[in-house]
Write a structure and sequence with these properties.
The chain has 375 residues and is α+β, with helices and mostly antiparallel strands. Helices cover 41% and strands 17% of the residues.
């Protein structure tokens, strides 16, 4: 991990990301993979709220979320459809449990590029609740969600319907909250967390997922035999292969993550950092091998799509040329081609080892079966 940090003026991704439509090829892919379904409620339906109330956190601070208030006729219509969407997300559309469910709240965020709504579904009998999100469809975000599903250790459920994108809630503690309240907690195993941050940094760079500032990922802490294990999960996929600066695909370079970087440097030596980076590349290579047909289909569609300004595409190609000491990225004509080539350069040694192991496996030789067996 590079110990240098980008200065405050240069570490910010694009303030307002452009939204890109889902082309027919990507739409056909989503249908083939079961990601395209007919939804009873669209994102546009949720925009018809009459007013909103700002939401505060438990400490009384204002958040970027607002509680949306609707007329009763609109509310009744939305509640029925939103419960059906939750059933689609969780039980493949099985409505036999719908009577137990209700919509507790609809929150709106005016800060996000995709104008997200957060739907709170509550069980009427035990008051347990869950969330999911409805957003405007954006091709680069959909590519990001699919890359997360294929290349990360996590699986994610989402569906599209025309201009509406529905995503399941990813549980975990927001990175900025973990940083301010839990990083220095006596029970936090900083060495284990540092290891996971190195792996997360390598994973984001490998699949070119940008803008992983602390509030765009969550920390999942799992009690283990001794202490806790940690998993960092991205929750914002808007910046998939969108930015031009290579450093924006590395969480280590954002000032919001400085304390995480300092934790890594304080608890891991250079050799350990390289070891964990190698482990993550190896894991990614196995995921590439396991999902190669789905990944190749997606990358081929992405290679023919436009999901970033040409200036950013050329800038990224130039910086990756410098990083890998090559001129090959200059021949790329899209962000999809850049990502495909980048994965090849990042994982070629690991994929080579996997191929060699596969070739070395020979079919077991069994002795001929006697025809007298059983007589």
């Amino acid at each position: 991990m590079d110990t240098s940090l980008i200065d405050e003026l240069n570490d910010k991704p694009s303030r307002k990301k452009l939204l890109y439509p889902v082309n027919p090829e990507l739409s056909a892919y989503l249908k083939h993979q079961g990601r395209e379904v007919k939804l009873p409620i669209s994102h546009k339906d949720l925009l018809n709220f009459t007013w909103s109330i700002p939401i505060k956190d438990r400490d009384g601070n204002y958040t970027h979320w607002e509680k949306a208030i609707y007329d009763k006729r609109d509310w009744d219509f939305l509640k029925e459809g939103l419960v059906k969407i939750y059933a689609i997300l969780k039980t493949e559309g099985d409505m036999s449990f719908a009577d137990q469910l209700d919509v507790a709240r609809i929150d709106y965020c005016n800060f996000g590029n995709s104008l997200p709504f957060r739907i709170r579904i509550i069980n009427k009998f035990n008051a347990n609740f869950d969330h999911y999100y409805m957003k405007i469809t954006d091709a680069s975000r959909i590519y990001g969600l699919e890359m997360e599903h294929i290349l990360s250790p996590n699986r994610i459920t989402f569906y599209t319907d025309g201009g509406t994108l529905v995503e399941e809630h990813i549980p975990g503690l927001p990175g900025d909250v973990f940083l301010s309240q839990y990083l220095d907690h006596p029970e936090t195993n900083k060495t284990r967390f540092a290891k996971e941050f190195v792996k997360f940094n390598e994973r984001c760079f490998g699949r070119l997922l940008g803008d992983m500032r602390s509030y765009n990922f969550v920390i999942v802490s799992t009690p283990d035999i001794e202490g806790y294990q940690y998993r960092i999960r991205a929750i914002d996929f808007d910046q998939q292969s969108y930015e031009g600066r290579k450093s924006l695909y590395m969480p280590q370079f954002f000032k919001e993550n400085n304390r995480f970087v300092q934790t890594v440097l304080a608890h891991l030596n250079k050799e350990s950092i390289e070891q964990y980076k190698a482990e993550e590349r190896s894991s990614m290579a196995f995921r590439v091998a396991a999902g190669r047909f789905r990944l190749m289909e997606l990358l081929n569609i992405m290679s023919r799509d436009i999901i970033a300004p040409i200036a950013k595409q050329k800038q990224l190609a130039e910086q990756l040329n410098q990083h890998f000491h090559t001129a090959a990225f200059s021949r790329c004509n899209s962000m999809g081609q850049i990502l495909k080539l980048h994965l090849k350069y990042m994982l070629r040694e690991n994929l080579k080892l996997i191929q060699e192991k596969t070739r070395s496996l020979k079919k077991p030789v069994y002795p001929p079966v006697s025809r007298n067996i059983g007589k």
